[in-house]
Description:
CATH architecture: Orthogonal Bundle
Shape: elongated
Strand content: under 5%
Order of helices and strands: HHH
Number of helices: 3
Helix content: over 70%
Structural class: mainly alpha
Number of strands: 0
Amino acid sequence: MKAKVLRERSADELSKTLSDLQEQLFKLRFQKSTGQIENPIKIREVRKDIARVLTLINERQAQESAR
């Protein structure tokens, strides 16, 4: 997921995206532990997407506190 796309979303949408990504990561880790995962690289991609969303959330909070 591109940061440009994420920047266009509202705070509520970012929170929803974050929870969806965390749930997806949990499922992928579970699949990995049971040996059912088809693409283990997907775990890395989801972790990076989570980091992007958290970065945007933190940036917005910093901007609000600076005002």
